[in-house]
Amino acid sequence: MTGFVRAVWVITRKDLLVEARTREIFLTTAFFAVACVMVFAFSFVREGQAISEAAAGILWIAIAFSGTLALGRAFERERHGETLRALLIAPIDRPALYLGKLVGILILMAAVEVIVVPLVALMFQAALFDHPLLLLALLATGTVGFAAVGTLFAAMLVRARSRDVMLPVLLYPITVPVIIAGVRGTAALLEADGLPMARAWLAMLVFFDVVFVTVALWTFEPVMTE
Amino acid sequence: MDFTRLEFVEVTRTFGRRRALNRVSLAAAAGTITALLGHNGAGKSTLLSIAATLLQPSSGTVRYGDHAGSGGAALRARIGMLGHDLYLYPELSAAENLRFFARLYSLPDVESAVARGVERAGQTGRADEPVAGFSRGMRQRLALERALIHEPRLLLLDEPFTGLDEAAREALRDRLRAARAAGTIVILTTHDLAAIESLADRSVTLVDGRLAA
User: Full-prediction pTM beyond 0.95?
Assistant: First the structure.
């Protein structure tokens, strides 16, 4: 294992160990995501009939909102006790620090999605699992795109007094293309002949991921150095 | 890389319109303890942050031996820092905290370094307990071992005596004397003159970002 990959893994493993001890982020975000889906289900399911087109949008709203919660909390932990300064002094490449935090957040978001996706499929009677690999690819690429930007902004805002307000204000406008591509790709999966369109949206998400991760890796070091 | 001297040359740092440091020149050699004194807001912590490469000077340079630079992993590997906040994860145990930082510093024998750090912190019997349950003094000793786990050349301590009882202060002074004997450049900030009496080789006072004569 190279030094860079090892540093990424050391940081991710520490985040997962802390989360395993507290379960704070997982429980908070999972509860929030489930509550979000349930509220929409009460609104959009009438007389046992769901508006199937709503499922994709509600799924991605739950992912984005709960992901924002996870991002804020993950960096709040580094602010508490100023451990972020200890990480910045450590002799690791700053992009490794970014990727370590990103991978930890991705694992947490994936754990929440394991609960939320079947719940959306059930509550909205949506055939999300008819094409499981394509669904998995859409979720993975959409989550990476969202978390890549979110991790950068959450790190930038960690010392800002109004970080809880600023994070969604900065994050959502930038990640709108990712969320739209996720929603449209997932909606295409639910249509009878939507597979080509779903693949096109997937390609778009891959493109966004490459752009966002590259820009974040490139800018992380300067933005973390005062 | 290694160095045996730290030198601030005409270092100025501004935050917006406020000048936190104003043309500070100061040098410290290996095997010495330098105390930075001064009131709150005098610029002590800013100077430490610049030495730790966490802040860039607005003007002036910091020289680590022959190397004038603002960072790089090789330089950061020779720096240890203990802030007023202790840079520890309260959810993790003493051993887990040390293990995490030992891995981050790519130490060759992580478990030996952890065992040594836990022993020096006097926490052998409580190594597997979460740090959240430790007293301030215990956390401070553990945090110092965290900062020293990679045997840094430069050790920076921000108000290390705050909140400690006399026994913990004496333990901290002993540890700093040992670091000095090992050739570490120790720079610490404090309000507490009594704490550094018979410890510091040199004391300098910062007043409104300037070194007092």
Answer: no
